[in-house]
Write a structure and sequence with these properties.
By secondary structure, the chain is α+β, with helices and mostly antiparallel strands. It has one domain (14-85). The chain has 1 helix and 4 strands, in the order ββαββ. The protein has one helix at residues 15-39, and strands at 5-7, 11-13, 62-63, 73-74. It is elongated. The model has no long low-confidence stretch (mean pLDDT 78).
Length: 93
């Protein structure tokens, strides 16, 4: 029988174990969320793991190469507040 269930003719959920499990999950996700909130203050959310820019709008931190099909590299520092770098209008091609 699965842990957390009691046998009384029917399977019943052990509410205390379920509550403890949900509380533990909440704590885990709360910590993840707090870390993400802290990181997003200095790391652009459009910068991928290869430090390439995935934004579909202009940014002064975009570094374009000679390859027109390649996404721009993100030249921004993770130590600055990037939010004022974004252009209000998309670039014209």
């Amino acid at each position: 029988m699965a842990e957390g269930l009691a046998q009384n003719g029917k399977d019943r959920l052990d509410t205390e174990k379920a509550r403890a499990s949900l509380d533990r999950l909440y704590t885990i996700y709360k910590d993840i969320s707090a870390t993400a909130d802290e990181v997003m203050q200095t790391r652009c959310p459009y910068k991928n793991a290869q430090s390439l820019c995935t934004a579909k709008f202009g940014c002064r931190n975009q570094f374009f190469t000679k390859d027109p099909t390649a996404p721009p590299a993100c030249a921004g520092s993770d130590q600055i507040d990037y939010r004022d770098a974004w252009d209000a209008q998309p670039p014209t091609l």
